[in-house]
Amino acid sequence: MTNIVVLPLILPIITGILLVFLRHQLVLQRIIAVVTMAIVSIISVIMLHQVYTSGIIYLDFSGWAPPFGILFVADSFASLLVVTSSIVTTCILLYATTTIEPKREKMFFYTFVLLMVAGVNGSFLTGDIFNLFVCFEVMLLASYALITLGGEKLQLRESLKYVLINVVASWIFLVALAYLYGTLGTLNMAHIAQRVAEAGQDPLLTTISLVFLVVFALKAGLLLYQWLPTAYSVPPTAIATLFAALLTKVGIYALIRTFTLMFPYEPSVTHRIIGIMAIITVVGGCLGALAAKDIRTIAVYNVVIGVGFILIGLATNTEQGLQGAIYYLMHDMVAKALLFLIIGTMIALTSESHIDKMSGLIRNYPLFGWLFFIVMCALAGIPPLSGFIGKVLIGQGAIASSSYVLLIIGFGSTIIVLYSLLRIFLSCFFGETIIPTGDETPMNKVNMAAMLLLAGCIISLGFGAELVAPYVKDAAAVLMNPDIYIKAILANGGV
Amino acid sequence: METVMLVVVGILVMVATYLILSRQVLKVILGTAILSHAAHVLILTLGGLKKGNVPLIDDSDGPYTDALPQALILTAIVISFAVTAFVLVLAFRTYRMNGTDDFEALRGNIDD
C-alpha cells in the first residue's frame, strides 16, 4: 500500500484544474504544464523501480479491501507504459509551447492535455475493469475537446465522426461489462481472473471476451482502423502527435491485459482471432502507406502497421513474444511521437504536405534531416536503435509458437515501413532544394530540443536495452503467469 | 421479469440502430442517447432485478439487493450525459461551419 501509484493520475488532474484559473497567463501555463509532466515522469520512474524491487504495489481507495473497492495496481508492465507515456508527453508539450497558437492555448489546451494524460495513466494503472471504462472516458472526452479545439471547418467535420464512433465503441464496452458482471459478479480484474481460472473459460466467457476484443480493437485501431487516418490528420501537429503516441497504445494495453490476465485459457479461439486481425491490420496499413502521397497520411498508416505488429506479439502467446510486444510498444510510443513531430515540422516549414512538392530539405536543415534518418532506422528495426530488440523478440515468439504466417507478415511489413519512409527521405530531404539556402525560416530551438530529446530516448532505449531488460522480463513474466498478479492483489482476502 | 426487461433492451437497441443509420446528424445523436439507455437497462437486468431488501443495515435485515449495478449505471449516465451534451454542441458548430447536417454531404477524405 503506497500512495505513489495514484500520483501519475492525480497530479495532472490537479494541475489541469489549476491551469483553468491561469487562462490568460500563457507563459505560466506552459511552464507549469511542462514541469508537471517532468515531475510525473520522475515519479513514474521511481514507481517502476519500486515495483521491480518489491513486487506489485497497489492502493485500495478508501481502504476497501479487494475485491470490493476500486484499486490501482502497478505491475512492471503498467509502470513501464506510464514512464514512457509521461516522458513522451513532456517532450510533446515542450514542442506544443511554441507551435500551438495562442487562441488554442487560451481555450484550455494545456488543461485538456493534462486531463488526457491523466486518463491514459489511469487506464494503465487501474485494477478494476469498470474503472478502466471510466478512465477511457476521461481520456476520450479530453481527446474530443482537443480534436475539435480551434473549430476549423475540416476539423469539425472529421471530429464529429471520430466522436460518434467512439461513443458507439464505449457503448459496446458497457454492454460487455454488463454481461461480465452478470456472469461473474465481480469487476475487480484480479478477482475476474481468479473466477475464470476456477470455473474454467466456458464458451459464454469466451464470447464475452470477444466483445471486449471488439471494443479494444476499435480503440487500438486493430482491424477497425478506418476512422484513424482522417481523425489523426486534422488537428495541429502537437495534438495529432499526442494521439498517435498515446491513444491507440491504451487500446493495445487493454487488449494485452484482457487476454493475458483475465481470458488467457482459450488461445485457440481468442489469440487466433487476434492474430488474423493483426495480419489484416498490417497488410491494410502497408497498402495505405504505399498508396498515400500525403506525408501525414503515410505517417498515420505507419501507426496502423505498428499496432498490427505489436499485437502479433500478443497473438504468439509466448513469453518472448510478449517481451517483444512490451519493448516494441515502448519504442513505438517514442518513435511515432518523433515521426509525427518531424512530419508536422516539415509541413510547417514548407507549407506543403504532398510528397512530390518538397525536396532538398537536408541542405536547409541538416540536423533535422538526420533526425528523420534516425527515426526511419528505428521504425525499420535497424540495430542498435530501439525497434530492433522488440522485432527480434516478437520474431522469436512467432517461431516458438510456430506461427510462421505471423512471422512472415510481421517482417515483411518492416520492409514496407522502411520503403514508405525512405520514399519521404529521398524525395523530401534529398534532391533540388526548394528553399534557397539562407532564405529558410530558422528552426525553432525549443522544437528542435523536443525532437532531440525524443531521438535521445530512441537511441538510449536501443543502447540501454540491457538496462531495461530486467523490467521488461519481469513485466512479461507477470503477464504469462496471472497467478502472480492475482496473489498480489487477493493475498489478504479473496472471496 | 428479466425476460420483459431484455425485450425492452432489444427494442431500445433496435430504435437506436435505426436512428444511428439515418443521415441526419441530430437523429444519429438521439440514437446514441437511446443506445446508452439500452446499456443501462441491460446492466440493471443482468445484475439481477430486485431480489432482497434495501442494502441499509439499520433499515432491514437482509437478504440485501446488490447495489453495485445502480452505482455503475449512475456513473454511466453521468458520462453519457456529458458526452451527449458535448456532441450536441459539436454538431451545432459543424452545422454552422459546414452548412449542412447531412452525413452524405459531410463525407470526403482529408485530401480534398
Automatic annotation (TrEMBL), chain A:
Swiss-Prot/TrEMBL GO biological process terms: ATP synthesis coupled electron transport
Compartments in which it is found: Cell membrane; Membrane
Primary location class: membrane
GO MF term (any one): antiporter activity
NADH:quinone oxidoreductase/Mrp antiporter transmembrane domain sequence ranges: 128-416
Membrane topology: Multi-pass membrane protein
Alphabetically ordered keywords of this record: Antiport, Cell membrane, Membrane, Transmembrane, Transmembrane helix, Transport
Record field: transmembrane: 6-24, 31-52, 72-95, 107-124, 130-150, 162-184, 204-225, 237-256, 268-291, 298-316, 328-349, 361-382, 402-426, 446-465
Pfam families attached to this UniProt entry: Proton_antipo_M
Coiled-coil annotated spans: none
Record-level GO cellular component terms: plasma membrane
NCBIfam families reported in the protein's UniProt record: PRK07691.1, PRK12663.1
Name of the protein described by the UniProt record: Na+/H+ antiporter subunit D
Automatic annotation (TrEMBL), chain B:
Gene Ontology CC: plasma membrane
Chief subcellular location: membrane
Keyword tags: Cell membrane, Membrane, Transmembrane, Transmembrane helix
Keyword Acetylation among UniProt keywords: no
Transmembrane segments: 6-21, 28-47, 67-92
Region forming the signal peptide: none
Coiled coil start-end: none
Localization per record: Cell membrane
Protease found in the keyword field: no
UniProt family annotation: Belongs to the CPA3 antiporters (TC 2.A.63) subunit C family.
The protein's name: Na(+)/H(+) antiporter subunit C
Gene name for this UniProt entry: mrpC
